[in-house]
Amino acid sequence: MAASTSELASTVATVAAATAENLRFSVTDYIVFTLMLSASAGIGVYFGFFSKAKNTTEEYLQGGKKMPTWPVAISLVSSQLSGVAMMSIPAESYTFGFNIVFTMMAMILTVPVLIYIIVPVFYKNNVSNCYQYLEMRFNKLTRQLVTITFIMNQFLMLPVYMFVPSLAFSQVTGINIHLINTAVSSVCVFYTMLGGIKAVVWTDVVQAGVMLLSVVLVAILGTSHTGGLSNVLENASEGGRLDFNFGIDPRLRVTFWSGIFSGLLMWTGKVGLDQSCVQRIVSLPSYAHAKKSLIIAGIGFLFIMTFTCFIGIIMFAYYYGCDPIQAGLVSKPDKLMPFFIQDIMGHLIGMPGIFISCVFSASLSSLSASLNSFAGVVYFDYIKPHIRHTDARANGIMKLVIIAMGAYCILGGYMVQNFNSIIQTIWTITGISTGAVVGVFLLGMFVPRCSAKVAVTGIVFSVVAMLWIIINAQFNFKAGLIRYDVLPNGLDQCEARDFQVILSSINNNITRVLTTPAPSADAPQQVTTAFGSNRDFSIYDISFYWYKVLGAILVFAWAVPMSYVWPTDKQEKQNPKLYSPFVRNMLNAPDPVVEMEEMPLKSSDSKAKENGIHQDA
Fold first, then answer.
1. Which pTM value belongs to this model?
2. What are the backbone dihedrals phi and psi of residue 320, each rounded to the nearest 5 degrees, phi first?
3. β-strand partners of 528
4. Most CB atoms within 10 A, among 13, 238, 280, 400?
5. Which residues cross the membrane (predicted)?
6. What are the two backbone dihedrals, phi and then psi, of residue 66, each rounded to the nearest 5 degrees?
7. H or E segment to which residue 204 belongs
8. Strand (E) or helix (H) holding 327
9. Is there a contact between 405 and 158 (Cβ–Cβ < 8 Å)?
């Protein structure tokens, strides 16, 4: 039996190697990829050495507040994509259906929230660092708690941003993955360090063009190879991939409701309350420019992300009845996209190079924006208070921080390669604190009576509660009480559709090794799956899509009642500009000084009496 298993495993490796060989880079592919990296490095050199700009901190982090609207909008779109997303979102649609698109459609609600509630507050208070607002509204401890969560998230995310596309590149070139990770991370650090926010924005524009071209080409060619849009929709519908779920059970993996609400919280947090994006928004000359930029970014985001989600549906329609995952040619859904590209584009010169450039462009965009904002947060929150600040010294230190973080990303690749289910792991871990961060910002803008003590304890309460829920949920996963089995596909159509590589795999009996085994007799009979549950309700069974929403709700659930226990000091004067325009209009409470100036007729006699009293005193 052991010998048989070894022989079959050897066959798997042989067929997989033969399949990968078809996707090896040609000279044209290397040229395409090299041009993309060279363009990014060239932009950094230009803004670092040749651009006629002052060497100031504001210039480095905010582009002198003179950034153009369109490039910033495109940069905002690019930064929300990563190589991980470009590989995993189509995989999500392929395995669990098109409901993931609801998280993207939430951007329709997010843009008005940013334009009319959050961004006006930053411009009113001349905020360059979104965490600076928390110190103005509450206190320094609140700011420090939130910046710590930002830094922790960056330490988690940045190595992943680079490692996953490096893995894809390694598979099509055979070059050692850590050499690739080192080379590309170094290029990103180079142009980010030299050019600052201007280099980040303009490289994002170049990279966005590559991403858009790749996504559109994949969608068009995939639809064509499947036999047209009608065939795509028919196959996807028969396979259950277009069954939209409007169920209200929070244990369902993804539904309309969890997609919309979790998407709203996620995009509000990532675009409007994450320093990597806020830094670009406030680099625009005025609020009017920011408003226009956010609208353009929202439209661009919806376009490219809807295409990306639909590519998963196209992949399923193409492989309907002949699943390369069941055939053993693809080890897991996250690796299906390169296989699909090879299948439909492998014969086109330069297409593998464009696709890998697309994945790298998405990752470089996320990495460069995060590096630039990370350096700013570390300097202003943790270094500046302890040194004598000058612009030249600040810029030098921030460049050193970027270099150090780049080195960490390279070393972090050795840890990331051991992770399983990277996407769900990241989504779950960030769910611990993201809801609390969004919640405390909204608390400051919407609840005037909330004090600093309430805000700090609210963050702690939310984070501790979410940590408890998530840890117990992981125990349920390990115990088999939660099991996210994918929607079914099959292998019965391979011969009819003439998929020779997959047929070869089947004929070599690879599927006997790779077919999912039947549940054992000891497996729990009552389980929560992606599409239903026969267990009694438990908060630990809720979908990870709800984590961010629940975290934000917990902040308000704590803060609203506690604001009556620990109210704000009556002697403390709050600046009305710290609240959202909606709340300021509801309160109709101008600055106390203005209020006295607007009451001359009513208080003229009393003023004279008051003057007399003061003179007697």
1. 0.81
2. -60, 120
3. 482, 533
4. 280
5. 30-49, 70-90, 96-123, 144-163, 175-194, 201-221, 254-273, 294-319, 339-364, 397-416, 422-447, 454-471, 545-566
6. -130, 25
7. helix 177-226
8. none
9. yes
DSSP 339-365: HHHHHHHTTSTTHHHHHHHHHHHHHHH
Instruction: Tell me the pLDDT tens digit for each residue of 197-214.
Output: 666 677 777 767 777 888
Residue environment code for 23-33, b if the CB has 16+ CB neighbours within 10 A, otherwise e = bebeeebeebb
**Owner of token pair 């910002």:** 441
What length does the chain have?
A: 617
End-to-end CA gap in the chain = 103
- DSSP 8-state assignment for residue 533: B
Tokens 């109709």 -> residue? 588
CA distance linking residue 365 with residue 304, whole number of Å? 15
CA atoms within 13 A on the CB side of 414: 6
DSSP H or E run through 203: helix 177-226
Label residue 18 by pLDDT band (50, 70, 90): very low
Per-residue pLDDT tens over the stretch 460-511: 999 999 999 999 998 998 888 998 888 988 888 887 777 766 767 666 654 4
Which amino acid, one-letter code, is at 562? M
How confident is the model over 439-460, as pLDDT tens digits? 999 999 999 889 999 999 999 9
The per-residue DSSP string of 463-530 comes to HHHHHHHHHHHHHHHHTTSB--PPPP--STTTTTTT-HHHHHHHHTTTHHHHSPPPPPTTS-SS-B-S
Residue 274 pLDDT greater than 60, yes or no: yes
Helix axes 336-345, 351-378, angle to 10 degrees: 150
Distance CA 106, CA 102 (A): 6
DSSP code for 389: -
Task: Count the alpha carbons within 13 Å of 527 in the hemisphere toward its beta carbon.
Answer: 17
Please tell me the least confidently modeled range out of 228-232, 305-309, 514-518, 540-544: 514-518
Residue-by-residue DSSP string for 158-181 = HHHHHHHHHHHHHHHH---HHHHH
Residue reference for tokens 């795999």: 505
